[in-house]
Model the fold of this input.
Amino acid sequence: MSASPRLADPVLSVDHLTMRFGGLVAVNDLSFRVGRGDITGLIGPNGAGKTTVFNCITGFYKPTEGMMTLRHRDGAEYLLERLPGFQVNRRARVARTFQNIRLFTGMTVLENLLVAQHNPLMLASGYTLAGLVGLPGFRRAQGAAVEKAVAWLTRINLLHRADDPAGDLPYGDQRRLEIARAMCTDPVLLCLDEPAAGLNPRESAQLNDLLRSIRDDDDTSVLLIEHDMSVVMEISDHVVVLDYGTKIADGTPAEVQSDQSVIAAYLGVEDEEVEAVEAEVGV
Amino acid sequence: MSAPAPALAAAPAARPALDLQAILKDALLFALVTFGLCVPVVAYRTDLSSTSALDLTPRWGLVAILCGLVFLARLAQRLILASRDARRALTPSPRQATEAVDATPNAAQSVSRFGLPLFLGVALTFPLLAALGTGGLSESRYWIDLGILILTYVMLGWGLNIVVGLAGLLDLGYVAFYAVGAYSYALLSTTFGLSFWICLPLAGLFAALWGMILGFPVLRLRGDYLAIVTLAFGEIIRLVLINWSDFSGGAAGISSIPRITFFGLPFTADEDGFAASLGIPFSPMHRVVFLYYLILVLALITNLVTLRLRRLPIGRAWEALREDEIACRSLGINTTNTKLTAFALGAMFGGFAGSFFAVRQSFVSPESFNFLESAIILAIVVLGGMGSQIGVAIAAVAMVGGPELLRNLDFLKPVFGEHFDPNEYRLLLFGLAMVVMMIWRPRGLISERSPSVVLKERKAISGSLVKEGHG
Amino acid sequence: MEVFAQQLINGLTLGSIYGLIAIGYTMVFGIIGMINFAHGDVFMLSAFIALIAFLILTSFLGIASVVVALILVMIIAMALTALWGWSIERIAYRPLRGSFRLAPLISAIGVSIFLSNFVQVVQGARNKPTPPMMREVIVLFERNGYAVALSYRQIVIMVTTAVLLAGFWYLVQHTPLGRAQRACEQDRKMAALLGIDVDRTISLTFVLGAALAAVAGTLYLLYYGVVSFSDGFVPGVKAFTAAVLGGIGSLPGAVLGGLIIGLVETFWSAYFSIEYKDVAAFSILAIVLIFMPSGILGRPEVEKV
Done:
């Protein structure tokens, strides 16, 4: 397992993460690193526990055991398993998208992006009191927020639909909007849950470009769950493979693609080879 | 001999025969079910006889009339619908699919735009209109009182709208804050003799505080459970008010609350009274008209604050919370604080309304603060269309004004006999109206949402996209 | 000790009645996720139906045996109340069965207001007493001049509840109807795709709930001997408390919750103060919902992100 040089300064370190639901072990002693400035893919067959890992990292589940440490460039460290749900975004600056898109369908595209900038805007509005009275500070801050939203909309090609309800957008546009909304919170780590699901090849290629530009231009590390191999292998710098809650491979895309246990997990093995593979994987 | 006329679009289908037999059977079924429902509660009336036993009075005539009415009504409904469908099948719609979609604003959108100014105009001039309509200031008392009542409910509706309509939190115990405001005001003014302008904000603050205390443990519950807990709290407060006599005066309540003054000038016929100071003849109506404008101002403040807040981050966070709480958390929004703010603010306006109630009646008692009140206010918000200010105002006028007008149905006495008391039927019809209105317009009168910030063009968002909140 | 034993018996009896009403709430909530606000008033209505049926049977038809009259009254009340339950569902709830949750709730509140005022209008606002019946008691033991008695009525109530619970438990677990109901509770769309008539199953749920409320209404009439149009709201809320306490969606939970609420109310009235007994019930509701929303026998829900 050769390490990418960026793994030496990981933005996220997951150590011995275990998640149990009653008697079911969804994630079993998982450890991996997300390199700063990397695009890291988290793959595995269905039911491998990928979304559970995400939910632990982003504060929706409290892990049964384990530690998740997020490090900013300036050295600030955040123990994600100790932070209350919303603080994972607010202080640790981890943003996410969802497997079943969770946009605010009854609000316009622009409003969606403004809600993402809630915290800085609240501060600027003096926690509402200054805004209520009409002090100019808030108006300026709101203008800046709209500018930022417009910049993102231009980047994802949705500026012409800024005033349309988010629920009216076609599926591919909704996915991109959700990513833009997450990016409006200025995250250090962006977690994407199956961003390419339901996209056609052209849209997947656009998504790849978007993710690369996020990595390069916005100084944001990306962690993504994906089933679409063309997306994962094409853009990932580093891939972690899960099966039944356990890590079975960890390396560059090329390494992972030729790893026997990964092939076994996805494609299965001949009956004769089952024992050998099981021994190798450690089942 | 000549060629037949060029074939038009296929000749109109033969008029579908009205399946009279099926319709008759359907209406008969309805009548039969009505019969079953009437037996025995309508068929026999129980009355206490002189020996404290129960007498049964058969009223089969009434049952027959009810069944007959249902039969005829259902028959008429089916026939009308059938003939309307037949007509539609014959005439193709003037709007073919290939034509441009009609973009003229529909009724709901027009109301949203013109409604609020219109409502404001009428509300501001209402006492004048009433006086002109009834031929004098004193004669218009009933109408101005009605106006005060309606405006109180409009304010309560606008207050609850923040909690239910904007933040999507299902509150079935809003009357508790109304009560806290009223009783706080009553106790403050009777015990400490403070003026209205001091007691009102204090009562509102108490109510807001109470809202935060109540809200803190329960706001993480999901929708229906939150509804029931708030209902339970509302009832607990009412029961405590009834039973803790030392504090609240028990069932008798608190009376002799000092009356409202015109910024210090009392509304009496004395030398230092309001009328004397202005050099006009005294009339008890002065106080009433002042109360009217007072509630109007309070309601308008509620409205303006709500509209303002909607454009601020907190208001947008409320609406986002209603749409999808999990997404909000993932964007770093402290959902607990956001909910608490909505709850406390709604409580505060409820408290203000309660203070007004106390000073208007000069008397508060627990019976004014029962669950029915909460239900009415919630119905006003839901019927108005969640989040729509003008919708709530219209709904309040309809739901409070309507039953009031029913009181004046004395003219129907000749039809139903001398024992007819329209009062008894008020709540009956009210309950029925609630059901009918929900079936007719489940999303409320104004079901569209207007965005709080716009880049180029303000487009109304259809109600089907707007979520109603899961608590 | 004697007071305790007597209150225990009284509490269990009251609790059985609450439990029967609670089953209706829990079944409806389980299958369409809706709090049937009108259920308490349906209970009240059934007590009136039972009252009138009883009067007709005894005075017009001259049935002398109380037991026979009671059984007939219960059957009649169950049938007619079931008709009411069915009609209410068809008229006020079915058209609103989409995803917007507030509309059925408001509609249910409307039905509740309608029912209580309907009864007030057609029957008058005064309390309606029944002639005393089944007054016999069995004295269990006596001490310090205080007799702990178990009345025949109490036996009837508790036995009926136990039998009905057993019957319903069997119905839900072992019959096709019960399976259809449980399937609809889990996933309505899938059940429909598999050929289950969802509309009919839901209607049947309301009908059964109403029938059980009718049993409760008849027993309530028998036990207290007086009924009034306003008797729907508070018992309704208490029964809902019982359903939530026992775990919404669980049939034995509903009865268990009912028994607990009945016991708490009775003991509170005996040992503390009777004015605040309703406050006790509402407070339990609040506490349970805040700290233990899935109830005693319910399954905790894990939110799917």
